């Protein structure tokens, strides 16, 4: 049992803390708006991911396996959406005050996980490794552990972004940082897009 818990924790941490579209968006938001204003996005992304994991584990996986083209179309749509988010970050107007500039919110974090190909692949891999066809107990245990680890991991990215924000104390520096983060996010989206096309 301890080895199973350890494996679940290691998998959850690896998938949550590794760079991806959601993490890059959180870093950019943390730098621009600080930890507190980024936290609703973190919450939305965490809850969105866990609900995706549970939905797949409790039956949606049957639909995905019955219609394999669904994942391809989802990857195309999700990659396009992430490309759009990357463009918005890269082109953000750093001259706006924090009160005028829109900050990513709970709803955007939630939706981003449901269109994020990395999230779908992480859920599918996790279910394949840790779910049990005879009982939902392992799925609920895995989801509970993943919830805690994902929340802490994404909050860590927000804190990292907030630290960057203290260094980026001029519009010019913040603009360069946004362009870097937005470009990385666009590159990530293009990679996912090319993978889905060649799949």
Write a concise keyword list for the protein shown above.
199 residues; 8 helices; 0% strand; mainly alpha
Q: What radius of gyration results from the CA coordinates?
A: 17 Å
Q: Compute the average pLDDT.
A: 85
Structural class: mainly alpha
| Strand content range | under 5%
- Give the N-terminus to C-terminus distance in angstroms: 36 Å
* Total number of distinct structural domains: 1
Instruction: Note the run of SSEs as H and E.
Output: HHHHHHHH
How would you sum up the major sheet?
Answer: none
Q: How many alpha or pi helices?
A: 8
Number of strands: 0
- The low-confidence runs, each spanning 5 or more residues with pLDDT under 50, are 96-100
Percent of residues in helices: over 70%
Spell out the blueprint of helices and strands.
Layout: H1 2-17, H2 21-33, H3 35-66, H4 69-90, H5 106-114, H6 117-130, H7 137-167, H8 171-198
Helix pairs in contact: 1-7, 2-3, 2-7, 2-8, 3-5, 3-6, 3-7, 4-8
Describe the structure in your own words.
- This protein is mostly helical and 199 residues long.
- It has one domain (2-17, 25-77, 92-166).
- Helix content is 83%, strand content 0%.
- It contains eight helices and no strands.
- It has helices spanning 2-17, 21-33, 35-66, 69-90, 106-114, 117-130, 137-167, 171-198.
- Helix 1 (2-17) packs parallel to helix 7, helix 2 (21-33) packs antiparallel against helix 8 and helix 3 runs parallel beside helix 5.
- The radius of gyration is 17 Å and the shape is globular.
């Amino acid at each position: 049992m301890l080895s199973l818990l350890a494996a679940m924790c290691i998998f959850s941490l690896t998938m949550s803390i590794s760079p991806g579209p959601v993490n890059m968006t959180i870093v950019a938001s943390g730098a621009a708006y600080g930890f507190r204003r980024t936290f609703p996005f973190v919450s939305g992304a965490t809850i969105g991911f866990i609900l995706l994991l549970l939905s797949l584990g409790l039956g949606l996986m049957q639909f995905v396996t019955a219609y394999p083209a669904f994942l391809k179309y989802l990857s195309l749509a999700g990659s396009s959406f992430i490309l759009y988010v990357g463009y918005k970050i890269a082109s953000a107007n750093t001259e706006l005050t924090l009160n005028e500039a829109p900050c990513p919110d709970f709803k955007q974090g939630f939706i981003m996980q449901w269109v994020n190909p990395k999230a779908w692949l992480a859920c599918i891999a996790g279910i394949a490794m840790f779910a049990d066809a005879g009982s939902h107990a392992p799925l609920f245990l895995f989801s509970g552990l993943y919830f805690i680890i994902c929340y802490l991991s994404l909050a860590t990215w927000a804190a990292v972004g907030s630290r960057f924000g203290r260094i980026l104390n001029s519009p010019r520096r913040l603009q360069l940082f946004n362009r870097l983060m937005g470009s990385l996010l666009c590159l990530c989206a293009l990679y996912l897009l090319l993978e889905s096309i060649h799949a």
